[in-house]
Amino acid sequence: MVDALGEMFPWELAGDAGDSGLLVGSLDSSIDGVLCSVELTDAIVAEALSSDFGLLVTHHSGILGGAHSPWVTDNSAGRLAALAIRGGLDIVCCHANADEADGGTADQMARRIGLKVEGPLQRSRRAYLAKVVVFAPPESVDEVSSAMARAGAGVIGDYTRCSFRAEGTGTFVPGESSRPYSGDRGRLNRVAEVRLEMMTPSFTVPGVVSRMVAAHPYEEVAYDVYRTENVVPWGRGRTGTLENDRTPDEILDDLADWAGSSRAVLHGDASRRVSRVAVAPGNAGGLVRAAVEAGCDLLATGELDRQGVAEAREAGLDLIQLGHLESERALVPAMVDGLAKRSESHGWGLRMTGYRDKEGYWG
Q: What whole-number distance in Å separates Cα of residue 355 and Cα of residue 363?
């Protein structure tokens, strides 16, 4: 299940943060039910245990993150961890990776308001675009390319199966115990080969290489993996242009209804029409300048401190604050839907749902 979550929200995007990944339990646990939530609280753990779920997937790590030692039962973090362990409940947190990934918290908000996304406000410093290069005989290059594409290689924007191919000559001397695909043992052979290059996210490289090697006819496969400096599509927040100009007040009402927020506030001109918008669910600390530099008229977020609010208003940037939890609620049904699809495709037969608070909102 941790691997399935990594397909949705690549773990590489979380970096070395201690609040993402498996917080409680074992990677080898056998589970038949999953509860997804934004928060990690005593009430949510109790709900998971009372409904006999084996796995709780959260966005926030709560008291099990940070400096607390969850293995000391003299504190609240330790007691919560011990409660989960005794009940056979594993807990996995997708925090920074769910914030930065395609389809994560920022994309959920962007879709709600009809934002044509151009990219993140702050690009990920963890993941990168890699180039995988392999040399294959001409008759096998299409099969090898297809295998790499199935593992995620060759995607550039709205284009798929992207590759570069160049013909050349490969040389090799097979050893006495070798089983060469072509050529003779013990002498220098020259054969026609194609240099195949495909781009892929760094977090898919192991899978791309594995499938490439499996599809390749050679006994020993020659390949290279390069780190590129290409601009990446992952990171905090999103920026772009609305499909139709709207007023900040209209956007506020739309997002407040979507997020179930009773404390949404607008700082700025409620009636002017805006087109360039940035979204940053959760905490938008450190992102105001990026929104201004992107030419945005409005930044919609969960929360921002006083200094950030002042910085935004001084720069002429309107600001919507929904509340931290409220701005990330849409992640819950997205996690449930993504895991349900993977459960069906793998035949796991898992039951799963999202946690709702007393008002019926995802929480």
A: 6
CB count within 10 Å of CB 136 equals 26
The answer to whether 180 touches 152, Cβ cutoff 8 Å, is no
Phi/psi of residue 230, nearest 5 degrees: -60, 150
Partners of residue 362 on adjacent β-strands: 356
Question: Architecture of 115-123+235-327 per CATH?
Answer: 3-Layer(aba) Sandwich (3.40)
Euclidean distance between the first and final Cα of the chain, in Å?
21
Give the mean pLDDT per block of 10 residues along the chain (363 residues): 94 84 93 96 96 97 78 84 93 96 96 96 94 98 98 94 98 96 95 98 97 98 96 95 96 97 96 97 97 98 97 97 98 97 94 94 93
Residue 69: the pLDDT is 66
Phi, psi of 236 (to 5 degrees): -80, 135
CA 221, CA 74: separation in Å to the nearest integer? 55
Class at the top of the CATH hierarchy for domain 129-227: alpha beta
Instruction: Provide the β-strand partners of residue 223.
Output: 134
Considering the domain 2-99+330-354, what is its CATH architecture?
Answer: 3-Layer(aba) Sandwich (3.40)
β-pair type (122-123, 235-236): antiparallel
* Model pTM score: 0.89
The token pair at 168 is 């050349």
Q: What angle do CA 258, 261, 264 make, to 5 degrees?
A: 110
Q: Are strands 21-24 and 90-93 parallel, antiparallel or unpaired?
A: antiparallel
Nearest to 312 by CA among 276, 288, 286, 282: 288
Q: In the numeric block, which tokens belong to residue 243?
A: 């499909």
Per DSSP, 90 falls in state E
